[in-house]
Amino acid sequence: ALVDETQYFNITEPIQNSGLVPAHDHVYEIAAVNSVYGGNDIGVISENPELAPVIPLDIKVVKDLIDPTLSVLDRYVTWRVRVANLGPNAATNIVVNDVFPAGLTYGSHQSLNPQNTFNPVTGVFAIHDLAPGAQTHIDITLKVPKDACGTKTNVANLISLDQDDTSSNNDQGSAALTLKPCVIQHTSTPK
Hints:
Elements: E1 6-15, E2 24-34, E3 40-49, E4 56-57, E5 59-65, E6 76-85, E7 91-99, E8 105-111, E9 117-119, E10 124-130, E11 135-143, E12 151-160, E13 164-165, E14 172-178
Parallel strand pairs: 4-13
Antiparallel strand pairs: 1-2, 2-3, 5-6, 6-11, 7-10, 7-12, 8-11, 9-10, 12-14
């Protein structure tokens, strides 16, 4: 190589199948410079795994209505969001979104695990980690206006996690609150 000339080359590292991670190549792009000041400078420019490791597991989201009875004085109702890791691996940074029914407003929440957080503005329930077979939950209390009517359905969806969720058919939970029937007002216009 000439002085101050940069040469690029790749080094490929084969990764064997380990059961959880399929066989793949990990490629490193290398740059080498023959310096005018003597010596060679070598550095890794980038690492580009051709196939990222897959860590399978199954997260299940369930929504329950804890107390569907509304009294005249207490116009609050509580839903529970349960999140379970069905395994076989640990799950980290799990994000579940809770969509409040239209017309209902946030009252309070209580999480089973204080490490987990809930943002009542965005509806994001963030779970730090769940071991295989473990579950956690959060209770979310919403205020129901006196004039509310019809059915109010509360929905929770799995948004993301660090691993690959192998089954999407259990990533959403919902529970409905049935209120008094809505009365539709008919008005007639003069002819």
